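During the second year of the project, the team shifted from modelling isolated chains to modelling whole assemblies. The rationale, set out in the original proposal, was that interfaces cannot be judged from single-chain predictions alone. As a representative example for this report, we include one of the complexes processed in the last quarter. Its constituent sequences, exactly as entered into the pipeline, are reproduced here:
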Amino acid sequence: MPGGRITALVGRNGAGKSTLLHLAGGLLRPACGQLSVLGAAPGTSEARARVALLTQDKPLYPRFTVADTLLMGEKLNSSWDRTTAERIVREGDIPLRARVGELSPGRRTRVALALALGKRPELLLLDEPLADLDPVARGEIMAQLMAEAVERGMSIVLSSHVLPELEETCDWVLVLRDGRVELSEDVEVLRRSHAVLTGPAGQADILAGQHTVVRSRTGGRQLTALIRQRGPIRGDWHIERPCLEDILIGYLQAGEPGHRSPAERTEAAA
Amino acid sequence: MKGSLWLAWRQQRVSAGIGATVLLVAAAIAAYYRSGMLDALHSGLFDHCATGPLYCTRPDTGLPLLLDVEPLKYLGALNITLPVIIGVFWGAPLLGRDRELGTHRMVLAQDVRRGQWFASRFALAAVTTIALSGLLAGVFAWWWRPAADRSYGLFWYENAALSGSGPRVVAAALFGLAAGTLLGLLVRRVLAAMVLTLLATGVMTLLLEWTHRARLLVPPHTYVSAGSIPKPPMAEKWSTGDYGLITATGRHDDAMSCPFPSGAQLKECMAGHGYVARFYQANPASDYWIFQWADTAVLGALAAGLTIATVLLLRRRV
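Output from the structure prediction step:
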């Protein structure tokens, strides 16, 4: 995956999103295969200093105060940006003296995020980071993340089930299915190369010959298909440009029983 | 390493504080009762008492003369249960708390290696445990010395002294810590780990008490006296309760074959049954150190083994 991007990690439950992030963060070791982050093996001191990981449950010591938690970040990391960490906490109106265990889940997330960003990572791995935030806080934190990313050239990989949110923020997509990479592509390219076609069901075979059908649905005599274009579209079709969410849902549904995986039809899916 | 030590201290300072408080209270109580004990000894009341396990009595009333060693025995009991207390309240949560909350993942996501995370917190706990148990054993020894091996005090073989003093207290405390740490790593719930640690350390403590009684690790010495001459005095030896008579062929028989303490009757009975000598079995006072080092070796080896197992499992479990 290219650096300097904001990558959305998408997949159904159990696809391996958290596992991949844990592997990249050095918390798990692969039984086979290799993974490198920023040119280093995860878990090495080189990678540890440059990668920050925020796991799904965002564990923090409940009896530590917020100030203690930030102090811990300072003590446990070779580089620490106290200003940024404290600013993130302060913007959430979180008193530094409060015990972490007494904060609301959203505020706790903010503290965990401050801990991750205070490290000044080059790569930030976020495992469903915003799931327990209210919509306003979600927007704020997301905006802040984007600003930090741009300002520092930080890469972000975030997993999420909230697809519309990804549309606004991400410029690269990684789709996982059953522990395999199904798709890893630039969002803009993805949008331009995919189309939703609606037309007579009889043309299905011709369509499959010309393009890659990600997912198709037949209702009566009508066929609706999400395709990856392999050239100009010929035939009697109603063409729509899909949004990222439609494309991603297409890929996610494609793995269900009854659908053949597009990977089986094309070699170049990933 | 500095950072992870800071975190270890931040998380263990309350336990360390409680440990230090217990130690100070124990030392204060020891100082108070020990000075009372010394006053009693200096009063001359005990000057006529002979050595040996038989109580000496007051010349005027005939009542047994005793020092107040009850509080000393309580300190001994504390030292005996130290591995259980340290294992349950210090060992089990050491890794278990982080494992239950998942917070080790947050710590390891910082610039901290797995090995550092374990080494710093275990080293701090081990050093504190050694200091606490060593000082408590030291306080016991200091308090016990004036009353040691006297009928009016505390004999070396009473379990408060034998198991509650000396280097074995330190080894036992480390064993408790290591057992709790490993169980905390293996069991995801701290409470379950604490219960299992209570069982494991409790069983081990009772097992060692049993080996003392059974003289399993330190076999007793057999004291033989030829004919019907008086047996060597028991003094501060720890009797097994096994005594009797020996035939010319070397067979050991129970004392009840000739149940006479001495004199002509005994001589006659021994001659009639063909007994040529009498014996009893006991551990001399110098065996205190053999008991001590045997326990220290067993508990120390267990502590080391459990710690190695923890280190090996760390890679797979965390």
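Chain A touches chain B at residues 22, 25-27, 29, 45, 48-49, 52-55, 57-62, 64, 68, 72-73, 75-78, 112, 115-116, 119 (CB under 8 Å). Residues 84 and 267 of chain A are 45 Å apart (CA to CA).
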